[in-house]
Amino acid sequence: MSDTQIPRFRLEGPADIAQFVPYLIGFTPEESLVIVVMDDNQVQVTARADLAEVRQRGAVEDLLDRIWARFPTADAMLIAYTQHLEEGLALLERSADHLPVAVLRQTMLVNQDTWRLPDGTHGRLNPSSRITAEAADHGLRKFTRRADLEGSFASAPDSPELAKAVRAALSDLPRHRDLPTLLEHTRDLLSRNLSTRAPFGSGRPSVMMSTADAVQLAHLVKDRHARDLALASITKASAPRHLALWSEVLNRTPSSLAEVPAVIAGMAAWVAGDGASANIALTRAQAAATRLRASGPAELLGAVIDQVLPPSAWPSVRGRILEHAGQAVHHTLITHIRPARTTTAADAFTPEPGRSRPSTRTGPTL
């Protein structure tokens, strides 16, 4: 598949749809409502929410209203992944009834390895089906559980060795702390490490980032200008590599440095179409902000997800970031552009929600 080609899949029935959804989400849903939003025979957004959250009064209605306010001509596939059949079917009916009259809608319940339609038609899922093989061939990946993905955004455990490495890395930063020097050092660290990163989730090996580089990047982007430079460096093509880079920064640094790297990882995930990762990164960033009694950097990522923005909105969001960035950021960004080092595929989107936040992802043509 080329870097910009949207994959096409032929889904021949409910079983294919049920087996394909985990690849859109990024993991196999459990006790979840999944909303597949389709327009012109193409998946525009896939949203996932915890059943416990959307069963609350008005919650699923609010989620549906927000999605259809942005995609008013789309049709819907509603899928409840649950072991509680009666509750799942009741929520599906409630959701379908709330959609606008003109929306074509289908509902399905998936209970472990069995799918079921409202008319009683049912069947079993086949983990070795044609559709799962095609999804794997196109480079789509899924984790067995959401928790398996969370480890990609965990901080390194505290230890005397890590504390010593952090002190050494910070003492090795340029002493001359003027803005151009700070931005040039950030740019150089980004360039060197992006060039050796494989796209996140691709299964391809990367050269391991040094702890010193990870610590210095995490510390540098605490500065607003360096953070703007890192964010503005993300493109649709390079986003999976940025996601791989910043998730590794999180893995190799202490939790005290987690907030801004988590925000940048989440933004890269959103641009790349990996909404599950975007939401996990947002949760990490918000937890770090609470712990530090800080706020700010995570608000941009939270707004992108809350407003159900598709990744195609990134140029506009990036433009607003650059509007507030100084000339030094603009100058450094121009010298940072190295297309040959940051080309990769990125075609889909899935923010996967927190409490009342929809998880959304654009997807392939069906």
Describe this structure in words.
This protein has 366 residues and is α+β, with helices and mostly antiparallel strands. The protein folds into 2 domains: 14-140, Cytidine Deaminase, domain 2, CATH 3.40.140; 149-341, no CATH class. The chain contains 16 helices and 6 strands. It has a 6-stranded mixed beta sheet, sandwiched between helices. A hairpin with a 5-residue loop joins strand 5 (114-116) and strand 6. The radius of gyration is 21 Å and the shape is elongated. The two termini are 16 Å apart. Residues 1-5 and 337-366 have low confidence and may be disordered.
The whole-number mean of residue pLDDT values reads 83
Distance between the termini: 16 Å
The helix count comes to: 16
Number of domains: 2
Written as H for each helix and E for each strand, in order along the chain, the element string is HEEHHEHEEEHHHHHHHHHHHH
Global morphology: elongated
What spatial order of strands do you see in the largest sheet?
Answer: 2-1-3-4-5-6
Q: Helix/strand/pairing class, anyone?
A: alpha+beta
Number of strands: 6
Q: Report the biggest beta sheet as strand number plus sense, adding barrel if it closes.
A: 6 strands, mixed
Indicate the percent of residues in helices. Answer: 40-55%
Tell me the β content.
5-15%
Rg from alpha-carbon coordinates: 21 Å
List low-confidence stretches: 1-5, 337-366
